[in-house]
User: Fold this.
Amino acid sequence: MTDRRVLVTGGSGFIGQHAVQRLATLGWDVHWTARNPSPSMDLPGTGHNLDLMDQGAALKLLRELRPSHLLQFAWETKLGEFWESARNLDWVGASLHLSKCFAECGGRRFIGAGTCAEYQWDETPCDEQSTPLVPATFYGTCKNAARAILQAYFRNMGVEFAWGRIFWAYGPGEKCDRFVPSILRPLLAGKPARCRQPLQRRDLMHVADVGEAFSQVLLSDLQGAVNICSGTQQRLGEVAEFMADHLGRRDLLQLADTPEPARPLRLAGSNRRLLETGYHAPPAWRTRMAAFIDSAARSPAKSD
Amino acid sequence: MTDRRVLVTGGSGFIGQHAVQRLATLGWDVHWTARNPSPSMDLPGTGHNLDLMDQGAALKLLRELRPSHLLQFAWETKLGEFWESARNLDWVGASLHLSKCFAECGGRRFIGAGTCAEYQWDETPCDEQSTPLVPATFYGTCKNAARAILQAYFRNMGVEFAWGRIFWAYGPGEKCDRFVPSILRPLLAGKPARCRQPLQRRDLMHVADVGEAFSQVLLSDLQGAVNICSGTQQRLGEVAEFMADHLGRRDLLQLADTPEPARPLRLAGSNRRLLETGYHAPPAWRTRMAAFIDSAARSPAKSD
Assistant:
């Protein structure tokens, strides 16, 4: 086993690819898995075709690679369905099995991808130590339950374990029904854009910063849950206006005057623990968003 | 699918066999599984050889039987190891998979076997609504996490779900290192017996009553967690003295004067919810224990 060999599952995904790129840049021996790795995918490291539901195949790959570190991003992400999808249950099983293979093959540090949906959404900023873990969704329930099991399991096995709770990531490759592309794509096409939740506040973070944050957690010795967020919160109406203004198309933007009431008005987190890993807070959101909009304007396909 | 077909996993086990017997008596079409069903096992209903870790075999059996009800007792129980065994992780995966097969095959009501080890052990009687779920062991962590996932999953699937949290069961077939046999076996053999935790208080329940309680939960429409306990608590020194006195061998009993401090001094539960199912509280513990001692004295092998 080499000391710095990391396996990134879901390594070609929305977040995973940024962690793969970051760790390769840092000189790690990076291996990543995807269900259908595209041969054209321009990712460093070694890609492996792996369906984590195939437990035999997962065990075989872990035995071959014997990674010292593992970043588990692979999970159900089908937009509009993943919150309550029965597939979440399969992903718990697959993650437990993967973890056991990793520990039994001599793995030393495991980083899992959690979610702000594990927390009780009570409008106050989510804190790893004090916010109750009362998920409102099946997705959040499964992630939190997997975390509880893995934390105890890895403690028993003497394997380090951290769990990054992702808040609101945006960036290249984001699915088009999500907030940022739902505004940006029509604006870039010169069509009307509608912000349906202008009063909601969210902790937005560029996906490259999310990938870097996970990489920093992996490099650190932090254990347990850690929020992967910017520590700030933005009103979505203000973000939509910024996007429209940046493109000089405020005329195309409509703000709904009746925000949808089902989800919390505020959903943000403390990034105190994340900063303890040595992670540097990302640039102010306007700077980051402006650069993303410019990049998306140059190659619109990347904002799909 | 018949309306009253139940599959009892772990049906030949310490608790499962009593539920099998009870439900058969009540006229149910009872099927049970065991990893190695003994051909000599005197159980009603239909036994099936099934290793629940074999997901394909589990799915096949569920598709064949299409039970309306399921009682999931099968789990890791190796004495002295199960509290922290990595096998608990496998059993979570197997239970999730079994549950999914059950729901997808049209199952209507699922009863899982939980444990008092899901609760924070803070010396007060455990209550389903108010006691924090802060397990001190890996076993308790896995059971509680499985419960959280299954409760949300079955809600989404429109399948009824209840979860019986077992306290301290004793009776025929109990493993010989556990409290009751550790006192009773030597006394029956005319040898010295030592009670190492005379000051601890536990909610003892005869295993036939545990099986009956689970059967009653299955017959009821109760959903969510329910304590499977007597609602009383006994000092273990007093129980040991009762056993010795009942056999007229108080001379053989030693009570340790330094109780082990690692586990809680009191561990008992409220049985209010269980009684709401129509379950009748068992006889007073002395009556139940006297009958068990007499039975064990007649056929000592049964107390193994």
